Amino acid sequence: MLNTKFEIEENMGSIEKPRISKATLDKKAESNFFTELKSRFQALEKENKELKEEISEMNTYGNRVLEENKELKEEHEEIFKQCVKLKNLVEQLRDAIEEPKELDDK
């Protein structure tokens, strides 16, 4: 334990004349603040870049899905047209099969 004023001043600096000035402490605090600020800014820039890449990938995927959806819709429409044609052909065939019965009655 420090007992005398001399021992205290020797180890910690004089109370009247501190070894580290307020200006030095302020500069050090400012430097630390800007270093931390710069570090956080760089982290945000990195995160922003990663998010932009992710958005780009999602847009690419979204465009692929839209194109696939368009193709499926076109395919669905073509199948529907073919179904309508098939229905009409079945009706014509049914009518053709039923007509000879009417001719047989005559």
Structure description:
The chain is mainly alpha-helical and 106 residues long. It has one domain. It contains 2 helices and no strands. It has helices spanning 5-12, 22-105. The longest helix is centred in the middle third of the chain and has 84 residues, at 22-105. The N and C termini lie far apart (134 Å).
Short note summarizing the structure:
The chain is mostly helical and 106 residues long. 87% of the residues lie in helices and 0% in strands.
Class from secondary-structure proportions: mainly alpha
The span between the termini is: 134 Å
What's the main sheet like? none
Overall average residue pLDDT: 85
Query: SSE string, helix = H, strand = E?
Result: HH
Helix proportion range: over 70%
How many independent structural domains?
1
Question: What oligomeric state do the depicted chains represent?
Answer: single chain
What is the overall shape?
rod-shaped
Structure summary, number of beta strands: 0
Q: What is the number of helices?
A: 2
Rg of Cα set: 44 Å
Low-confidence stretches: none
Beta-strand content bin: under 5%
Feature tags:
106 residues; mainly alpha
Write the topology of this structure.
Layout: H1 5-12, H2 22-105
